[in-house]
Automatic annotation (TrEMBL):
Residues 1-33 form the signal peptide. This is Murein L,D-transpeptidase. Belongs to the YkuD family. GO terms for molecular function: carboxypeptidase activity; transferase activity.
Length: 264
């Protein structure tokens, strides 16, 4: 009887060990699957730009591979890269956008030559080292909000070559830096990085300035996310419910505090 009990206990232990081994193998496979794609060309470009970027990062107290967050402002035409070294996001660098299509306002349909606005994210598989525009990543348009509004189109990129048909185009040198920062953050375990696109800084002053725009209601729906990040330097949780952006309760609280402060 005692030997039977030992046998049963041993079998249970082996089953538990097998479970964790399988889970470990699965997680390793998933991690490998999340590796950003690469080509000899993209690897060469990143090797060449890496010393320059690492020197700039070191000078500002950052390190390559730390999580990133991207904000784009159509006016004045700037792409910001923020990085998190454990105390919330801090601005690493602002890059001038070489070219983008359209005007302030969202993308509505395929072929309208308009760059989108809203909240997007980029995972490893959206990195495109084979782009015909030097290097690129797909921002993830259309998102759930765009789909709910029946907005069409796709393959909206941040890319090089300084030419745009609905995308955000950078010079090749700037794109190499941005691509390296994104690539390394994903390789180091950031599941995806957020990309928030605004027409301009959504301050009360700017919203009042553009109050007669047909897009003012849409822009006001983006404002709580802009304000929450400005206050906390943490990317707020944003979901889509009934075709509208919904911001996490903590972000709404921060946004309201900011509004009350502005009113005083």
């Amino acid at each position: 009887m005692r030997s039977d009990r030992i046998h049963v206990a041993l079998c249970k232990s082996l089953r538990i060990l097998s479970f964790f081994l399988c889970a470990g193998v699965l997680s390793v496979c998933q991690a490998a699957a999340a590796e950003p794609p690469s080509t000899p060309k993209s690897e060469g470009l990143m090797v060449n730009i890496r010393p320059k970027v690492e020197q700039e990062l070191l000078g500002k107290g950052f390190a390559l591979g730390q999580p990133i967050f991207v904000r784009i402002f159509k006016l004045p035409g700037v792409l910001e890269v923020w990085m998190n070294r454990g105390r919330g996001f801090e601005l690493f660098k602002s890059y001038r956008i070489c070219n983008y299509s359209g005007f302030p306002g969202p993308k509505i349909s395929e072929g309208d030559w308009q760059a989108p606005e809203g909240f997007y994210s980029v995972a490893a598989e959206q990195m495109n080292p084979k782009s015909g525009y030097h290097l690129a990543f797909d921002i993830g348009y259309p998102n759930a909000f765009d789909t709910a509004k029946n907005r069409t189109g796709g393959l909206i990129m941040v890319h090089g070559n300084c030419q745009s048909v609905g995308c955000f185009a950078m010079t090749n040198g700037r794109m190499e830096e941005i691509y390296l920062l994104a690539n390394e953050s994903l390789k180091q375990g950031q599941e995806r990085f957020d990309v928030h696109i605004f027409p301009f800084a959504l301050t009360p002053r700017n919203l009042n300035k553009f109050a007669v725009s047909p897009w003012i209601k849409f822009w006001r729906s983006l404002e709580p996310v802009y304000t929450a990040f400005e206050n906390s330097k943490r990317v707020p949780d944003v979901t889509v419910q009934n075709g509208e952006y919904i911001v996490g309760s903590s972000a709404r609280k921060l946004a309201m505090q900011h509004v009350f402060a502005e009113d005083r």
